[in-house]
Amino acid sequence: KQWYQRRVAITAGGSLIAFGSWLAVLEMVCKSLILCLVLGFAFGYHVKSQDGKQEACLVTCSGWTEPGQGFQKYIDGKNSYIDVSMAHCGFIDTPVIVSSLHGSSHHWHATGGSAIYTPTRDSFRNYVYHKDGSYGLVRNMMWYIQYVAVGYIC
């Protein structure tokens, strides 16, 4: 498993604190949650509390499951689910999570890889459905879940 962590910051009022011209561009371009997460992950930015006394402890953490591993059979016997651990991130509360299903083949017509269930500070669950049953495809097609999460560590 690989993961990456970077400090991210937004003021309590929600506006970015500029310390570079790219931040002004980021603020204008950052219209969707996924774009914000990707740009925040790639570049990082800092946030201060409204009173300006303390820097926020907001981080971006990403990772993925082992390809073809960790999926369990759903009760229908054909489809599957996976519990994804984010314990290494060290969040103190449930973060904002974006996930997607990856693999070598057939994942393009599966559903559920981006649907987050039972999120906690340490984990979340994805249910993956495929019309032909996802459980058999998981291992053969090396499916895995990749995620980016943004939350507080202090």
Order of helices and strands, N to C?
EHHEEEEEHE
Low-confidence stretches: 1-35, 41-55
C-alpha termini separation? 24 Å
Number of helices: 3
In short:
The chain is an alpha+beta fold and 154 residues long.
Provide structural commentary.
With 154 residues, the chain is of the alpha+beta class. Helices cover 17% and strands 27% of the residues. The two termini are 24 Å apart.
Task: Considering the chains and any ligands shown, give keywords for the structure.
elongated; single chain; alpha+beta; about 150 residues; four-stranded antiparallel β-sheet
Question: What's the structural blueprint in terms of helices and strands?
Answer:
Layout: E1 4-8, H1 21-29, H2 33-43, E2 58-64, E3 72-73, E4 80-85, E5 96-102, E6 123-128, H3 135-140, E7 144-152
Antiparallel strand pairs: 1-2, 2-7, 3-4, 4-6, 5-7
